[in-house]
Design brief:
A hairpin with a 2-residue loop joins strand 2 and strand 3. The protein is globular. It has about 170 residues and is of the alpha+beta class. It is about 25% helix and about 15% strand.
Length: about 170
C-alpha cells in the first residue's frame, strides 16, 4: 500500500482493496530477509500509516519474483540459481507491454486503468486476462481469489490480455 499516493478511482471501485487495519499501520523493510534466509531481525520502519488509511493498493499484477522458484542465470560461463525479485519481473512486464503494443499496432496508453477495467469485465472467467493466485502472502496480506494487496489481480494470460486491450 502506498503511503505517498491515494487510491485511484479505477482501483477504488474494486472489491478487495484494503485500508490499514488498526493493528497494522507500520510498513517495514527487512534488510536480512532473503533467499534461504527468513530472518526478519533488524527491521527498519519505512512508514507509519494511520488506521483506516486507503492508499494506492499494490501490486497490480503478479509475476514470479520468488528466488526459490525463480530464475537460473548464466554469466561468465556458469549457471547460478536462486535469483528473483523485481529486477527480473519488471523487464518481463515491459516485454509483455511491448508485444501488446506491437499487436495493437499502436500505443496502449496508460495501462493500469485498462487492467482494472478488463478485470471488472472478465473477472477470472475463461476469457479473463488474469489467473487468481489463491495461496500465499507477501508478509503483510493474504492472497485470494479476488483482488488483494498480496498478488494484485493475479498472473497474466497475455493472449487474453491482448484481446481485452484490443482497441
Amino acid at each position: 500500500m502506498s503511503s505517498a499516493f491515494p487510491i485511484p478511482s479505477w482501483q477504488g471501485r474494486l472489491s478487495g482493496t484494503q485500508a490499514t487495519p488498526a493493528n497494522f499501520n507500520t510498513l517495514y523493510y527487512y534488510p536480512n530477509y532473503g533467499p534461504g534466509n527468513p530472518d526478519q531481525s533488524g527491521a527498519e520502519v519505512w512508514a507509519v500509516l494511520p488506521p483506516g488509511y486507503v492508499g494506492r493498493n499494490v501490486p497490480d499484477v503478479s509475476l514470479n519474483a520468488d528466488p526459490f522458484t525463480g530464475y537460473l542465470t548464466y554469466f561468465a560461463g556458469s549457471f547460478s540459481a536462486g535469483w528473483g525479485g523485481t529486477s527480473f519481473v519488471a523487464p518481463q512486464l515491459n516485454g509483455i507491454a511491448a508485444l501488446l503494443t506491437q499487436a495493437n499496432e499502436g500505443r496502449l496508453g496508460f495501462l493500469n486503468p485498462q487492467l482494472y477495467h478488463a478485470f471488472q469485465k472478465y473477472g477470472y472467467s475463461s476469457r479473463s486476462p488474469f489467473h487468481a493466485i489463491t495461496t500465499g502472502t507477501n508478509l503483510y496480506w493474504q492472497a485470494g481469489a479476488h483482488y488483494n494487496p498480496a498478488s494484485g489481480l493475479g498472473t497474466l494470460n497475455v493472449v487474453n490480455l491482448g484481446t481485452a486491450l484490443d482497441h
